[in-house]
Amino acid sequence: MLNYDPKQADALVLDNGDYDAEIDGAEDDKKTKKGDLCLILHWRIFGGDGLEKYLRDWIVLPSALWRLKLLCDLAGLQKEFASPPFDSQRLVGLGFKVTVIQTSDVKYGKQNKIYKYISLLGTRAPDLTPPDENIPF
Fold this sequence. Notes:
By secondary structure, this protein is mainly beta. It has helices at residues 8-11, 65-75, 78-82, and strands at 17-31, 37-46, 52-60, 95-105, 109-122. It has a five-stranded antiparallel sheet with strand order 3-2-1-4-5. The protein is globular and about 50 Å long. 13% of the residues are buried.
């Protein structure tokens, strides 16, 4: 049997606010149920006190192409954006300041989403991975 504290489910949801984040991965070969091209960005959000939260951010084309343009503008990738096809892997590893908000609905409960991209932090967000301590698993 699985034993856990149900109160911890809400503890993993970040408060509304601005956070350092890093794009950890990108998938640009996905389609929505309607058949629209979709870029999925995998974000690692640094919540302070060592808390990391992983979020996915969907940029559906063409309706949200402005969001990809904004990321490219912040990252200095204007030329690459202006000359498709765009290699989404160019965004992987870049650190940004983002605004994260809480959302809630009946189906998924309380969760976070990226509301806004604010600025470029640099090539990499802080590495909070603990050193390998010869963990046997």
